[in-house]
Design a protein that fits this description.
By secondary structure, the chain is of the alpha+beta class. It has helices spanning about 10-20, 65-70, 110-115, 120-130, 145-150, 155-170, 180, 185-190, 195-205, 225-235, 275-280, 285-295, 340, 370-385, 410-420, 440-455; strands at about 5, 25-30, 40-45, 50, 55-60, 75-80, 85-90, 95, 100-105, 105, 215-220, 240, 245-250, 255-260, 260-265, 270, 300-310, 320-325, 335, 350-360, 395-405, 425-430. A hairpin with a 2-residue loop joins β7 and β8 (about 95). Bound molecules: flavin-adenine dinucleotide.
Length: about 450
């Protein structure tokens, strides 16, 4: 009998299996897709490294780098080209650079704030005055929009918070929980009152610890390299079964999971699939757990990679890319020029745009044909970025219900879920529905789940 069954072979499940194997425990991964990695998938096309899902991870969260080092891939880590970092935001049909010194939506430099045309004078004055805001007790959770509006006004929500978060969550800042999505900012606001003062203070502290690392890191060959390295390192210690887990039941010694009509027994179960899938699996184990899991919303997104010959551009695109706020949006949510954002991704003579569609406001995009999507994205990109080149190749990746949404109240719901899960010996959850959506968060949760099942930790 395998001691631990891991349901879901995305980075959460793979990390659980990796740390189990590292701790000397065998496990079995059940994955319904024909490949491991979940939304992490890298393709090479005409010498370009295309990321179908995530393209990088935040340097500030250590779990990804720790796993990468453990796997012996430290030499392949690259940082974002921060010296070229300019992100544009579409405003009134024009491209306006995000002002220098902005940390998400928090301004930290006066001159760029005064001179930007991204926000009007009312917002600029309000952003400046925020510096004198005193700490004030807050009553529980609130939405990102309420939080940002209280500090910097509504325009900062529409032209900063909304477009910045749409790219990450594909969600609506009026629904998203600030405690879950921006926990660091909530901490700073509680301590300093002013977010700007809080960010400046923590920056000064970080500076005294040495030069700042690049904001994002990734692997030279793409994040698919991480999936390949984990898969290779668990070979022989982890069985991978390519099948969908159909249902879970409790037994005297743990659990049994139905797969292809047969039952697999396990003492421990790491459920690392999407929460909506976990809800279906666990309804026979605990109805309230299933209800809480089923209550986690997901948005659907789409990544469209367009490859061009650089010679077809009169002027190469400038900066990392652009964001389109909801107020200005037709279909395109954001675009990254990947050859500018990272080294090694795009060879000389080529330009690749990574475009995002879908999200909470446009889930229907996923049902459109490739031809329709290609035509829409190409013409919108040409109009927004101001060029007429035609793409020489394209790839379209659809991610239905893959990005968990953390609505107001999410922390309380998750606290209840955690307590409930802890009351069932051997049951563990990991994945982007719980305590962070990014790749490092998922690795951290997979590692924590493994830690709880290893005998030495009992
Ligand atoms: C387009 C996109 C871009 C992103 N960009 C970034 C980024 O740049 N940086 C970053 O840090 N994060 C990014 N994220 C978020 C991050 O990539 C994900 O949150 C994370 O990879 C999710 O990993 P996971 O293992 O929890 O889930 P998934 O990758 O969704 O894996 C879950 C797996 O479970 C399997 N499964 C489901 N049900 C069953 C079942 N019943 N039986 C067996 N298997 C099952 C699924 O097939 C899937 O493979 C992005 C996400 C998307 C979609």
């Amino acid at each position: 009998m395998p001691r631990t069954l891991v349901i879901g072979g995305g980075i959460s499940g793979l990390s659980a299996a990796y740390y189990l194997a590292k701790g000397g425990a065998e496990s079995t991964i059940l994955e319904s897709r024909p490949r491991l990695g979940g939304v992490i998938q890298t393709e090479k096309v005409e010498g370009c490294t295309l990321e179908a899902g995530p393209d990088s991870f935040l340097s500030a969260k250590p779990a990804a780098l720790e796993l990468i080092r453990d796997l012996g891939l430290a030499g392949d880590v690259i940082g974002s080209n921060d010296h070229l970092r300019v992100t544009f935001v579409r405003k009134n049909g024009r491209m306006v650079p995000l002002p220098d010194g902005l940390m998400m939506m928090v301004p930290t430099k006066i001159l760029p704030l005064i001179t930007t045309s991204l926000v009007g004078w009312g917002t600029k004055i309000r952003m400046g005055m925020e510096l004198w805001r005193a700490p004030k007790p807050r009553a529980g959770d609130e939405s990102v929009a309420e939080f940002v509006e209280e500090h910097y006004g509504k325009e900062a929500v529409d032209y900063l918070a909304e477009p910045l978060l749409s790219g990450v969550y594909g969600g609506d800042p009026r629904q998203l929980s600030v405690t879950s999505v921006l926990p660091r900012f909530v901490e700073l606001a509680n301590k300093y009152g002013s977010l700007t003062r809080g960010v400046l203070a923590s920056r000064a502290q970080a500076k005294s610890n040495g030069p700042a690392p690049p904001l994002f890191r990734t692997l030279k060959g793409g994040l698919g390299q991480l999936v390949a390295a984990v898969t290779e390192s668990i070979r022989g210690k982890t069985q991978v079964v390519q099948a969908r887990a159909e249902t879970v039941e409790r037994t005297a010694s743990g659990f049994r999971v139905k797969v292809n009509g047969d039952w697999l027994d396990a003492e421990h179960l790491v459920v690392a699939c999407e929460a909506h899938s976990a809800a279906v699996l666990l309804c026979g184990v605990d109805a309230r757990i299933a209800e809480l899991l089923g209550g986690v919303g997901y948005s659907s997104s789409m990544v469209v990679a367009l490859g061009f010959d650089a010679a077809d551009f009169a002027r190469p695109p400038v900066g990392f890319g652009f964001l389109v706020p909801k107020k200005e949006r037709r279909r395109l949510v954001a675009c990254t020029w990947i050859g500018t954002k990272f080294p090694h991704r795009v060879p000389e003579g080529k330009i690749v745009a990574r475009c995002f569609l879908g999200g909470a406001g446009d889930a229907a995009a996923l049902a459109e044909s490739d031809e329709a999507i290609l035509a829409t994205v190409t013409s919108e990109l040409q109009e927004i970025a101001g060029f007429s080149a035609r793409p020489r190749f394209h790839r379209i990746f659809r991610w239905p219900r893959s990005m968990a949404q953390y609505p107001v109240g999410h922390p309380q719901q998750m606290a209840e879920l955690e307590t409930r899960v802890a009351s069932i010996p051997g049951l563990h959850l990991a994945g982007n529905a719980y305590q962070g959506i990014g790749v490092p968060d998922c690795i951290r949760m997979g590692r924590a789940a493994a830690g709880k099942t290893l005998p030495s930790t009992h």
